[in-house]
Amino acid sequence: MTDARDRLAAATRRYRDSEAAHEEARQQVIEAALEALRANITPTEVEKLSPFTGAYIRRLAREKGIPPAARGPKRSTK
Questions:
Q1: What's the CA gap between 56 and 65, in Å, rounded?
Q2: Residues with Cβ < 8 Å from 54, sequence gap 6 or more?
Q3: What is the mean pLDDT of residues 38-55?
């Protein structure tokens, strides 16, 4: 192989290895987010502490059968 081919093959291996590590880390964050929701941490706080949007967190919760968070007290409109 040429040097350019060797470099490309090595870079591809590193890319694929990092891609697998990224997916593993993503799954760990999902599990931790679900655990937090089950521990009654609000979706808003989970959103602040994670790389995920509120919509994605709510979708994960629905998929896993976690009920929606209770609404806070109504604010006065005065």
A1: 14
A2: 43, 44, 47
A3: 96
For residues 74, 75, 77, 78, the Cα torsion angle rounded to the nearest 10 degrees is 130
Q: Residue 2 has what pLDDT?
A: 83
Using the 8-state DSSP alphabet, how is residue 64 labeled?
T
Residue 78 confidence (pLDDT) above 70: no
Q: Is 52 helix (H, G, I), strand (E, B) or coil?
A: coil
How far apart are the C-alpha atoms of 55 and 69, rounded to whole Å?
13
* Alpha carbon distance 22, 29 (integer Å): 11
Tokens 């890319």 appear where? 15
* Angstrom distance (rounded) from CA 12 to CA 15: 5
